[in-house]
Amino acid sequence: MACALEKINTFPNYHLHTSFSYRYSFAPPGYLETNTRFWEFKIESGITTYVRFGKKEPDGKLKERATQIQHHQSSEDARQFIEKMIDDKINAGYVGWAEW
């Protein structure tokens, strides 16, 4: 089974313009978007997932709706959780990048 992250279209010169990437130090990060919405994820310490999502304003700013923090039993559980969410977002029309 191919890793869900391999399906993501990449933006090689894209930089996150939000404070989310600076609030926590963890890897791997990822960002997916549509024309009007964004979805970011990060995994910290291998078992804690952070998911941030919201709307994209017409001026390009991101308006956060929520940040969800979830602790998993193992790093494999955290990875599977993120991979399933990525698949769901891609199926919903999101595109973006991830580092794995």
UniProtKB/TrEMBL annotation:
Highest taxon above the source species: Eukaryota
In Swiss-Prot or TrEMBL terms, this protein is called 2364_t:CDS:1
Source organism: Ambispora gerdemannii
Taxon lineage: Eukaryota, Fungi, Fungi incertae sedis, Mucoromycota, Glomeromycotina
